[in-house]
Amino acid sequence: MSLGQDLAPHLPFLRRYARALTGSQQHGDNYVRATLQAIVAAPDDFPREVDARVGLYRMFQGIWASTNLDQDENDGVGGGDIASARLARITPRSRQALLLTAMEGFTSEDAGYLMETDAAEVDDLVSEALSEIERQTHADVLIIEDEPIIAMDLETIVRDLGHNVTGVAVTRDEAVAQAIAQRPGLVLADIQLADDSSGIDAVKDILAEFAVPVIFITAFPERLLTGERPEPTFLITKPFQRSTVKAAISQALFFDSATVPA
């Protein structure tokens, strides 16, 4: 099997990580594209001593660490001054460690390899990121989910994080009505809803009324991580872990609340 075939199944999840790390589909996908270009240009540099997924993320981490985020946005990778201001709000390495372990499921040892450090430092960085999360401003959260057990689980996680749940909607129309009645600061949205309507359409309707960060929840993340069309920046895979939801919520709110200093 070729290297390209080995890497293909892992690309959707690298896009998820890159988007969560940058807070943008465009910038995240640009970093993934740059990573693939680097692999094609120098295939012998790809780490063969580890499995394909770990090697792919290691190549990405190298691109991320070596790129100057203050460069002009037109260069296709850099996020410009706005992204730089946002990234300054929390130690970048602590967020990387949290996302690699909580969202991408790497062990502390593997995350240490990816970040060129050891497992002990990864654990310290994750603790640092979690401390930053505790200091985040609490938000009103709308949950769009038609499965009662999953909805209750999400509601418990959201409330345990100190956020308020404005409501739980099970259809597109109900979601839009609740969002307009009590504007949320964050939306958690399933893809397939009770009346066969779409959570994606519900979110589009809400975003037509006002801007709000959104985290999509789906059992088929690869369908929304192709990089070929407008797609979610933040995405949670079903079945999910509490730590994954926590990391995604913290990242979405972090980028939404960040502003450029005067």
CATH class of the largest domain: Mainly Alpha
Radius of gyration: 18 Å
Q: Tell me the series of helices and strands, N- to C-terminal.
A: HHHHHHHHEHEHEHEEH
State the helix count: 12
Task: State the helicity in percent bands.
Answer: 40-55%
How are the strands of the largest sheet arranged? 2-1-3-4-5
User: Unreliable runs, pLDDT <50, ≥5 residues?
Assistant: 68-91
CATH architecture level-2 label of the largest domain: Up-down Bundle
The fraction of residues in strands falls at 5-15%
The largest sheet is:
5 strands, parallel
Average pLDDT across residues?
Answer: 87
| Superfamily (CATH H level) name of the largest domain | PhyR, sigma-like (SL) domain
Q: How far from one another are the termini?
A: 53 Å
At the third CATH level, what is the topology name of the largest domain? Butyryl-CoA Dehydrogenase, subunit A, domain 3
Give me the count of strands.
5
Given the C-alpha coordinates, what overall shape results? globular
User: What count of domains describes the coordinates?
Assistant: 2
* SS content category: alpha/beta
Modified residues (4-aspartylphosphate): 190
Pfam families: PhyR_sigma-like (PF22233), PhyR_sigma2 (PF22029), Response_reg (PF00072)
Protein name: Response regulator
Keywords: Phosphoprotein
Characteristic key phrases:
single chain; 262 residues; alpha/beta; Butyryl-CoA Dehydrogenase, subunit A, domain 3; Rossmann fold; 2 domains; 5-stranded parallel beta sheet; 12 helices; 5 strands; 55% helix
Describe this structure in words.
This is Response regulator. The protein is of the alpha/beta class and 262 residues long. The protein has 12 helices and 5 strands. The protein has helices at residues 3-7, 11-22, 25-41, 52-66, 80-87, 92-103, 108-115, 119-134, 148-160, 172-181, 199-209, 242-257; strands at residues 140-144, 164-169, 186-190, 214-218, 234-237. β1, α9 and β2 form a beta-alpha-beta unit.
